[in-house]
Automatic annotation (TrEMBL):
Protein's recorded name: Acyl-CoA desaturase
Keywords recorded for this protein, A-Z: Membrane, Transmembrane, Transmembrane helix
Matches recorded under PANTHER family: DELTA(5) FATTY ACID DESATURASE C-RELATED (PTHR19353:SF19), FATTY ACID DESATURASE 2 (PTHR19353)
Pfam families tied to this protein: FA_desaturase
Keyword match Transmembrane helix: yes
Fatty acid desaturase domain location: 20-292
Transmembrane segments annotated in the record for this chain: 20-38, 118-138, 159-180
InterPro entries reported in the protein's UniProt record: FA_desaturase_dom, Fatty_acid_desaturase
Length: 320
């Protein structure tokens, strides 16, 4: 995946490619590699499950920085908030999108949401463009208010690290190609956006299929701010698997089709999820707990489409 991401960029930065269509093709190939890094390398590494050696996990986690995002911010947003408060409005960042998207029945519904099952996919494609440009900085400010960055010095250091890594990433992914490639600058910019569109569409869709489907639940905390039930059961109620029989597909997306196993056992590498899944399914059945599973990717896409349409039409379920 690293080679799929880096090799096309190296070729572009040699300046030997003058064909506009070939520039686009190389950037798009790099986009598939970027998605592979996100799903199959950094995801396990930042969960400390890629290797038993924590130094390996640390440095492979930096592959996220290499593609323009940031491992430290992702660790808070994903490992801490998403995995602890899965599908809980306001606490889980994954279901707190911009106002024109509605991912939970408890958020306010606007008229535009009636069409979100149609236009959401376009914004999924743009999600990583937002991520590598503005979203990390927005999250840093919010996480600071939440107490994750203790003291102004720590925040300033983290901010400088984020800026430095983004400068490095943008230098070889966008700035150098604009300077070196023998094509108009806007061609490179458009190709860069296409690369991110491929990555964003793949990554966002894969993650959404695990939580924004009709079978999953969206629990709310009680008056004391506590969500009833135990953590493990919560993961089963709010998470869904898909396409469990395709080993190639599972390899391609870093085992993220086994999201239930990942949420219950995030410290275990994704290569083991397939075998673990039988134990998890049997245990869930034994205790009368749900084990949501769609047999293939297409049916999972269909379920997510239905959920987007349903959320776009139903009124808020929040009371009080």
């Amino acid at each position: 995946m690293l080679l799929v991401f880096l090799t096309p960029l190296v070729i572009i930065n040699t300046g030997i490619i003058s064909s506009v269509w070939l520039i686009f093709a190389l950037y798009i190939i790099s986009g598939f590699g970027m998605a592979g890094i996100g799903m199959g390398i950094m995801h396990d590494a930042i969960h400390n499950s890629y290797s038993k050696n924590q130094k390996v996990n640390k440095y492979l986690g930096y592959t996220l920085n290499l593609i323009g995002a940031n491992a430290s911010i992702w660790r808070i947003q994903h490992n801490v908030l998403h995995h602890t408060f899965t599908n809980i409005e306001e606490a889980d960042d994954d279901i707190n999108p911009p106002f024109f998207l509605r991912f939970t029945p408890h958020t306010k519904r606007y008229g535009i949401h009636k069409f979100q099952h149609i236009y959401s996919w376009f914004f999924y494609g743009l999600s990583t463009v937002s991520w590598v440009t503005a979203k990390d900085f927005v999250r840093m400010v919010r996480f600071r208010k939440m107490g994750f960055f203790k003291g102004g010095t720590t925040f300033s250091k983290e901010l400088m690290k984020v800026i430095t890594w983004k400068a490095i990433s943008f230098s070889f992914v966008l700035i150098l190609p604009i300077i070196i490639a023998p094509v108009a600058w806007w061609v490179v910019v458009l190709a860069f956006i296409c690369m991110h569109f491929v990555t964003g569409l793949m990554i966002t869709t894969i993650f959404q299929l695990a939580h924004i489907v009709p079978t999953t639940e969206y629990p709310l905390p009680n008056e004391e701010g506590i969500v009833e039930g135990d953590w493990a059961s919560h993961q089963l109620f709010t998470t869904s698997n898909f396409s469990p029989k395709s080993r190639f597909f599972s390899w391609l997306i870093g085992g993220l089709n086994y999201q239930i196993e990942h949420h219950l056992l995030p410290n275990i590498c994704h290569v083991h999820y397939r075998k673990i899944s039988h134990i998890v399914a049997e245990t869930a059945k034994e205790y009368g707990l749900p084990y949501h599973n769609k047999h293939n990717f297409v049916s999972a896409i269909g379920e997510h489409f239905k959920m987007l349409r349903s959320l776009g039409r139903m009124d808020s379920l929040r009371t009080g």
